[in-house]
Amino acid sequence: MKVGICTVGVGPCSTGEFIRRSARAAEKAGFASFWAGDHVLLFGAYPESPYPYAGVNPAWGDPPIADPRLPLYEPVMAMAWAAAATETIEVGSSILILPQRNPVVLAKELSVLDEFSGGRVVLGAGVGWCKEEMDAIGSDWKTRGKRTDEYIDAMRTLWRDDAAQFDGPTVQFKDAYMYPRPARAGGIPIMIGGDTEIAQKRVARTGDGWLAFNLPVDVAPTRVRRLKELTREAGRDPDALRISVAVFTWTEPDELKRYRDAGITEFLLFKCNELPLDDAGLADALGEASRKYVELAAGL
User: Fold this and answer.
1) Which candidate, 89, 242, 128, 122, places its Cα nearest to that of 190?
2) Alpha carbon of 141 to those of 93, 100, 126, 130, 146: distances in Å?
3) N or C: which end of the chain has fewer CB within 10 A?
4) Going by C-beta distance under 8 Å and a sequence separation of 6 or more, which residues neighbour residue 239?
């Protein structure tokens, strides 16, 4: 089993320098993938948007970033910066809020990055939880789920077809060519984030995998079994899915084994804002994390 890592956060852990150094250190420590989250804007208050993951990590507040003045990266640029600094590690978004993007422009950005990096890009996509952010961007809140499905179909069409044609409710093109193509013949893997039944149905219909964030080990067998049922009902092979679960500093080795037995195929370790900023401390911390997670997962 493989283990990915998210090292980047806000403030000092959001700089290009830290992204470059932590991506290199993560690759050297043996992590398989390097992930970045997404928010275009932060707000002083979120009166219309209860934070869905309050309490998952004791270090996070509600909202998770109390100071809206803290610098926060943009995920595609962070992925590109990390990919340029490394050689083998995958770079992914966990998660990119897809209905806030123009899917044609995003498809081009990711296709170029995948070609430049030798096929190392993974798109983790979700519908988002923050209505204030959607409103500021001009993205319709009520239709975000339907547009996420539409955008995934439109991007895959551009990555796959010459003289591409697409006629969706909000995206239309014909006789369109997008080059360079993604480095992999099957296109860029798209993993769907979200812990709801709706998110699982989206994975079953169209995803290459599931990015589960708030998935307690006790309920993992039931949720994975349900995902596989939905995938079979959609006429797709459930055994082809990547099924990733978020793990944290307090996740115990026995829990990793129980996740494996439940059908989880990989882990994503969140170390956001937990790592030293200096090179020596960063290398030591990621080396310790590798021994606890990467080496154990490799033997499962």
Assistant:
1) 122
2) 21, 10, 13, 9, 10
3) C
4) none
Question: Span 293-300, mean pLDDT?
Answer: 88
The phi and psi torsions of 258 (rounded to 5 degrees) equal: -65, -35
- Per-residue pLDDT at 242: 98
Structurally, the chain folds into a number of domains equal to: 1
| Residue 220 burial (C-beta neighbours within 10 Å; 0-12, 13-18, 19+) | buried
CA distance 105 to 143: 20
DSSP 3-state of 90: strand
Task: Write down the H helix ranges in 51-192.
Answer: 75-85, 103-117, 131-137, 144-160
Count of beta carbons in the 10 Å neighbourhood of residue 223: 21
Residue 58: its pLDDT value, please? 66
Domain with 132 in it: what CATH number? 3.20.20.30
Is the four-CA dihedral 137, 143, 145, 147 of positive or negative sign?
negative
SS3 264: coil
The reported pLDDT for the residue numbered 63 is: 73
Mean per-residue pLDDT, 189-212: 97
pLDDT exceeds 90 at position 299: no
